[in-house]
Amino acid sequence: MLVAAGHIAALVVAVAAFVVKLGALRRDPSNPRVLASLGICLGCGVAVTAGWAPVHSGIDGLSGVPNLAKPVEHGAALVTATAIQFLFLHLGDPQRARRSMRRRWLFFAVVATVMVTMFWAADFPESEPMHFAERYGDMPQVIVYMLAFLAYLGVSVVDILRMSLGYARFAGTRLKVVMRLLSAGAFFGAAFVAHKALFLAWKLAGTTPAWSEPLASQSLVTLSVVLICSSFVLSTVWKTVDGLRAWPRRRALYRDLHPLWHLLYRAVPSIALHPPRRPERNPWWVWGVGQRLYRRCVEIGDGLQAVGPPDPRVVAQARRRAAEAGGDEARVTAVGEAAGILDAVQRYARGQVAGSTVEPGVEQPSGEIAHADVEADARRLAPISTALNEHLVRAIASDSRGTRAI
Description:
Elements: H1 2-27, H2 32-50, H3 53-63, H4 69-92, H5 94-122, H6 132-136, H7 140-168, H8 173-204, H9 213-256, H10 258-267, H11 289-307, H12 312-324, H13 329-349, H14 371-387, H15 391-405
Helix pairs in contact: 1-2, 1-9, 2-4, 2-9, 4-5, 4-7, 5-7, 7-8, 8-9, 9-11, 9-14, 10-11, 10-14, 11-14, 12-13, 12-15, 13-14, 13-15
């Protein structure tokens, strides 16, 4: 009963983590860290499912091969260990990760080949879902099979713990928690390896262990899988909570940027990756505001590059008049830059495009940019966007157009 409950608990957590990572895969299908996380969750899920006695019997019955579920279970465990190494390598040094994984893939291939060869050579007389190690542990083929399996897991666990301790010093709080949970899961994996090795040693010595091998093995596997997979669930929940807390702030910034974005969009419609049906509308409710705010900053940056740099004379005039009106330094700066941008857009509409670009303090976001950096750009641009609606800004831009015409 306890063994079945452990299988169910581990499977539930593994499935939840797998579903969570499927969502991340849809958003970023080429990210190797997401692919590694998905492989970890899938490996854990397959391992605990194939190791469950009813499923074990079902696989054997459908295939007609006694104990075929064992190499499926153990192979999934090898995939999980390899995927964790892959994840840690990409967290530490993505440039070297591919080269560093080559020898690990070679080790994996050798171990898998030995395990498959020994399994087919064993020619088991009948299926044994619960007491496989107790019944067949003294067969020479099973001994070689288990030594290869345990050797790979042992080396992998040491590698994982080594990388975890090294990277945790430089990780942020959230990543550090995730890595510690993964390391804790790997630790129980190491305990599983030690337990299996000790059991085989006792078996070869002709001694009957004083504990229940299936119960001990399943307890260690359950703890390992739950800790490993819960790290991904916790990370997603943490990120979701942070997103909900940040939503009002990001929504306000997104709305504040609308006047500036709309001005540039009317001048250069090609800046919009997905042109809205009603670009003049500034919605109150915004779904996916983090990504939308990122896109808005990118599109504003593209628009500013397209219309060209502001006229320094217009900026200086606007700053002077804003200061004379009693504005503080922040408002004076925002009014000056807003007037310069509005004037640049008007020049662009008349076909007078400058040859270089001077952006008002906005950094072009990259694909790896953090939300904090996006919000920093948005906070920098929001006062400029708001100032576009001021009569002073429009009057100065209009005056500069009349001066040029004369």
